[in-house]
Amino acid sequence: MIDQNLRLASLVENSETEVTALLRLGTENRSSIAGKIVWRTPKGPKACQIVAWCARPPDEAGAALIIIRCDSDDEVVNRLRELNEQLNILKSELIARRQVERGLVGALKARDDFVGIAAHELRNPLNVFHLTLQLLYRMPQKSGNDIRGILDKLRAQLNRINSLVDHLLDVTCIRAGKLELDLEKFDLSELIREIVRRFAELHPDIPLVVRVNGAAAGNWDRFRIDQAVSNLISNAIKYGLRKPITVAVSVDDKKACVAVQDQGIGIAPDDSERIFERFERAVSQSHTEGLGLGLWIAKRVVEAHGGLIIAEGQAGRGAVFTIQLPLSKEQHA
């Protein structure tokens, strides 16, 4: 029977007295009630630990709601339940550990790949630089024009090394959340014309077309926007199969857009997001140069301005990269 101390409740089959007493006590108490119920079964008595509490007190509109939770009093069953709970905990910890391990393996692989790529990309211009200097020292009788040509090659390789180093520094800066913008008002159309002229001088064999529809003035970081657009044009030159490249500028009431379109290898549907990740390329390393950081940096620069960068295209049919920049300074926050 259930006594006032609630130490034991003995329930006999087809008897409602004990259950009634338990329910009555449940409605009269504001805290949970602990006890024990013993059931008669064909295999003998079966004890259950119970906890009962009143979820809704009785009122004039309806009866009380009593919730009873039963746990087996069988020591073996309880032990098995504890072991099962421990196994579930260990299983969850194992899954979490494997996820961490996979992340670490991926990070180590990315690091090793990056070190290999960086060493390869830095070694090539340094080798050219070294060999060209040797050539310059061995031929002191060369004319001024010949020497100027050699010095131009050295300058080009030195600029390439500086660009690689700048990209590495930008990655560190962006990852640390220290990409600061020096905003000023300028005409984006004029900046695009300047950038295209610069690339046209470096690549006179590749047709570069500029399409500008009026001025596009806004508050941006001139250096960083130059960097982002230059990275897109460099990417178009790298994968454009030396076919014409078009750079178009347009503007509406809220944003300015810069679209860089090439007629090269294009973008596979599954790669439109992947190519914006660090150290990623449209094709394998053996087919192209670079650290695979240009698009990643461009995306972070545009996003720091509150803008958006979109890649569109089809494999074998060229690609279009579009930068959308808000015109108002408030949208940079």
Q: Largest beta sheet: what is the strand line-up?
A: 6-8-9-11-10
> Regions with pLDDT < 50 over 5+ consecutive residues?
1-15, 280-287
User: What is the fold-level CATH name, i.e. the topology of the largest domain?
Assistant: Heat Shock Protein 90
Most strands sheet: 5 strands, mixed
CA-CA gap between termini? 71 Å
CATH architecture of the largest domain: 2-Layer Sandwich
Can you tell me the overall shape?
A: elongated
The CATH C-level name of the largest domain is: Alpha Beta
By CATH, the superfamily of the largest domain comes out as Histidine kinase-like ATPase, C-terminal domain
Average pLDDT = 76
Indicate the percent of residues in helices: 40-55%
Q: Indicate how many domains the architecture comprises.
A: 3
Structural class: alpha+beta
Strand content: 15-25%
How are helices and strands ordered from N to C? Answer: EHEEEHHEHEEHEEHEE
Q: If helices are DSSP runs of H or I spanning 4 or more residues, what is the number of helices? A: 6
Give the strand tally. Answer: 11
- Rg is 36 Å
Folded structure, characterized:
The protein is α+β, with helices and mostly antiparallel strands and 333 residues long. It folds into 3 domains: 9-73, no CATH class; 82-175, Signal transduction histidine kinase, dimerisation/phosphotransfer (DHp) domain (Helix Hairpins); 183-332, 2-Layer Sandwich (Heat Shock Protein 90), CATH 3.30.565.10. Helix content is 46%, strand content 23%. The chain contains 6 helices and 11 strands. It has helices at 17-28, 75-138, 144-175, 188-202, 222-239, 294-304; strands spanning 9-10, 33-41, 44-56, 65-72, 183-187, 208-212, 217-221, 245-251, 255-261, 308-313, 319-326. It has a 5-stranded mixed β-sheet with strand order 6-8-9-11-10. It has a 4-stranded mixed β-sheet with strand order 1-2-3-4. Strand 8 (245-251) and strand 9 (255-261) form a beta hairpin. The longest helix is centred in the N-terminal third of the chain and has 64 residues, at 75-138. It is elongated. It starts with 8 loop residues before the first strand and ends in a 7-residue tail after the last strand.
